[in-house]
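Honest question from a wet-lab person: if I give you the sequences of every part of a complex, can you actually get the arrangement of the whole thing, not just the pieces? Trying it with mine:
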Amino acid sequence: MGIVVQKYGGSSVSTINKIKNIAKTLINKKEEGNDLVVVVSAMGDTTDDLISLAKGISKNPDKRELDALMSTGEMMSCALLSMAIRELGYDSISYTAYQIDIRTSGQYGKCLIDDIDVTKIKESLKKGKIVITAGFQGVNKNGDITTLGRGGSDTSAVALAVKLNGVCEIYTDVDGIYSVDPRKYKYAKKLDAIDYEEMLELSSLGAQVMHSRSIELAQKYQIPIYVGLSNSNIKGTIIKGVNKMNLESKPVTGLATSDDDIAVNLKEIDGNINILSNLFETIASRKINIDMISQTSPINGKVNVSFTVPKDEQEECMSIIKNFSNERNISIDEDITKFSIVGIGMKNTSGVASKMFKLFSDNNINVKMITTSEIRITCTISQKDKNKAIQIVAEKFYL
Amino acid sequence: MGIVVQKYGGSSVSTINKIKNIAKTLINKKEEGNDLVVVVSAMGDTTDDLISLAKGISKNPDKRELDALMSTGEMMSCALLSMAIRELGYDSISYTAYQIDIRTSGQYGKCLIDDIDVTKIKESLKKGKIVITAGFQGVNKNGDITTLGRGGSDTSAVALAVKLNGVCEIYTDVDGIYSVDPRKYKYAKKLDAIDYEEMLELSSLGAQVMHSRSIELAQKYQIPIYVGLSNSNIKGTIIKGVNKMNLESKPVTGLATSDDDIAVNLKEIDGNINILSNLFETIASRKINIDMISQTSPINGKVNVSFTVPKDEQEECMSIIKNFSNERNISIDEDITKFSIVGIGMKNTSGVASKMFKLFSDNNINVKMITTSEIRITCTISQKDKNKAIQIVAEKFYL
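Yes, you can. This is the full assembly:
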């Protein structure tokens, strides 16, 4: 008997009937003797609907108000799920971020959780209640409503598991973590387990299964996360530390692609490192995530620099860059797919990169930018080459 | 230069375009030198949509969770309106009940406002912000989200006007208070002013323009309320104290009808006053509003009692009554229209009731129950007679 923190994604609560089914599942789990704390996302497309309301008001809606608006989606699903449990004769209570003081800091729309006051939750569990909490939202020290960014409910769940010393289960519309997105590669294999680091690389690279901050948090506190289908007996995937895993010889565990970025190319800018670091600092201070950065060696003191930026931050980013470079020298490449392979095993296996680039070259796939980490190789390629690249790499590395 | 509290109803903010228009209106008002605090209802049919979601879960949804659910509608419109003002380059901030501690007590779904902490509002006004607050909602001492009942945003607005020592303006989809609902009687006259008492009787009798608790509150603190169309130059109606009014000789100011109740008839119950007072106390303790009560003189110690109950509380009410009376002796009459005429002038004019009942009798309209107050006469009639009754009474009393 312990505390189980379960998170249900938007697709698991997208209709009243699905909510009723989750309520039944929760009651079964409760009857097995578990104390249950449940984090819910907004129903189905609610968050998108709220955003499009805001976009009807402004192309660039005020961020404090946008957070206040978006937080309502989770409040709704939360109250409905609690209602559904009570309707079945079991005790339940819903809490918003305000009610359990999910304290956040940082910028609206991408706040970090500083702390959660779990007193009320513990009291409610003691009374036998199933506790339902609103994911994705928090409150900053000014009392403003904040949100944690897309997929933030995963992080809410892990944070609650940390504070409650419980286990964490993420229920979603996929039945686990695959080596490659099965929609993109039909022979993709489901993994029984994956290391935090690998999952982190995969999820920050566009494998949309999990919010990457949730993995970081789980890794920090060594909380294993189960990821699986809601209302199903199909076995999912456990995300845990490598020391707990049966390390296989396979160097590459997963593959991920993302079309969510554009590449910014700056031509012939002053190679003075101060200017570049200034530029990147300014961009970072606006909390824009620059991802891949590559720079060529200076010629006559001038360098060419390329980096990728999320599409939806292109505008804000460009307004910064214009202060650092002549507009003539800025070009944007919208035709990029970020293509990454990930594996703890890469640390001990050489030649993975060269093997992949040989494959690309044999198949006439042009590689534009390259960045690597100890357990990851990422490059950008043209979007038309994406599917071919997935097929040949997945096959070659037995994914 | 003073503080103006304006309330905009759901139909005034039912679309993004309407919200943008309200934003412009507010900025104009602000530029005239007013400090503006705005209370908004949920957009259009949002509250009904939320209720139907809840009804999909349960015929009788848990009331704490229902309040939590329903409160989200106002949070949304609040954030959107503030965004719209900021989009036009003016400063604005939205506050939920939590953020300004709209403290309530009483039962979920019909809470009363105990207090509001206006510190944050005053600070924001000082900084030149237009303050947008969520109507209809509050927080009780347990930290639960509560709502004030249908139309509760009016009460939120008056309460804020009281606490901020401001004036109160209610903007809605009608251009003022009419002697008779103009949809029911096309010759109805709009009133320039109406006394609190009269308005109170009218609104508690089914004239849906205003939340009756808001009138009580305004009367208690002698805050005049302006009621009119949003975004319009058409002059509306001021609700204020009779001592400020030019008292006319006309005994009847208004007429209201309501089909929202059913009549409960209890036959041959024990005439012991203790039993009846017990019954009514029990019903009242569940916060069910019994409205009209009439009782016939006892025969052999037994009396017949009739009273009206809101349709949506019929079920709860019946479960109580069954403990007090044999089921055989309980009958329900669903075919009733409450028909009321109201006027401060009635205090000084005799024969109003007899004049009305003579009219009914001349026109073959059967009167079922009758109750009266100093300034009001209410009876129930069959619903099929409603329109005829409105026409003949409105004409006779020059409404």
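Two things worth pointing out. Residues 174 and 229 of chain A are 6 Å apart (CA to CA). The longest strand of chain A covers residues 261-270.
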